[in-house]
Design goal:
The protein has 186 residues and is α/β, with parallel strands linked by helices. It has a single domain, classed as Ribokinase (UDP-N-acetylmuramoyl-L-alanine:D-glutamate ligase), CATH 3.40.1190.20. It contains six helices and eleven strands. A seven-stranded mixed β-sheet has the order 5-4-1-8-9-10-11, with helices on both faces. A hairpin with a 4-residue loop joins β6 and β7.
Length: 186
């Protein structure tokens, strides 16, 4: 049996420097999740990109069972994440961002995304995760977060993990919802 999956979150440009070199690529939590899940089932993608990368994202997903009806295209450029990785300490030694169009996105799930059996909340501001969650009817919910949100919005991120939001985390038949590296019992 195959379940439809809805994913909402980030579609970004990554500018990464490692001890092995420098690379620029398309990325984002929703992108990586959609690519992995599309190997197994239909994915309904929701997020925002700038006109500067919209066609490159469409080309990346071409031929895959990824429905992009929830993709908003802005005139503002796509978010760019700059990171320098230190492999000796296995940490990101510095990071910065160009927010681009991300602050413009107000999630509005279409009917297929709202009715998907599974929802994955990609890394995005906890307020946006809550907005997406409140629109979805998924029986199983998973989520990702970024270190910056864990630092700056710790209580909000933790409350979602414990199911203390108005919408709450929902697991299949009241079971656990997959949240980051832990489970939240719904």
């Amino acid at each position: 049996m195959s379940w439809d999956i809805s994913v909402a979150g980030t579609l970004h440009r990554d500018d990464i420097t490692t001890p092995r070199g420098h690379a620029r690529s398309l990325g984002g939590s929703a992108v990586y999740f959609a690519l992995a899940a599309a190997r197994h089932t239909r994915v309904h993608l929701n997020g925002i990109v700038g006109v500067d990368t919209a066609e490159r994202f469409r080309a990346m997903f071409e031929g895959l069972p990824i429905d992009m009806d929830g993709l908003v295209v802005s005139r503002t450029p796509t978010f760019v994440w700059h990171a320098v990785h230190d492999f000796d300490r296995w940490v990101t030694s510095s990071e910065s961002e160009e927010p681009g169009c991300d602050p413009e996105w107000e999630p509005r799930l279409g009917p297929t995304s709202r009715s998907a059996e599974v929802l994955f909340l990609g890394s995005m501001h906890p307020r946006l995760q809550h907005q997406v969650l409140s629109q979805a009817g998924a029986g199983l919910v998973g989520a990702d977060s970024m270190t910056v949100y864990m630092r700056e919005n710790n209580a909000s991120v933790r409350s979602r993990r414990r199911g203390e939001t108005g919408a709450g985390w929902r697991g299949v038949r009241g079971g656990p919802a997959i949240v980051g590296d832990r489970c939240a019992h719904g």
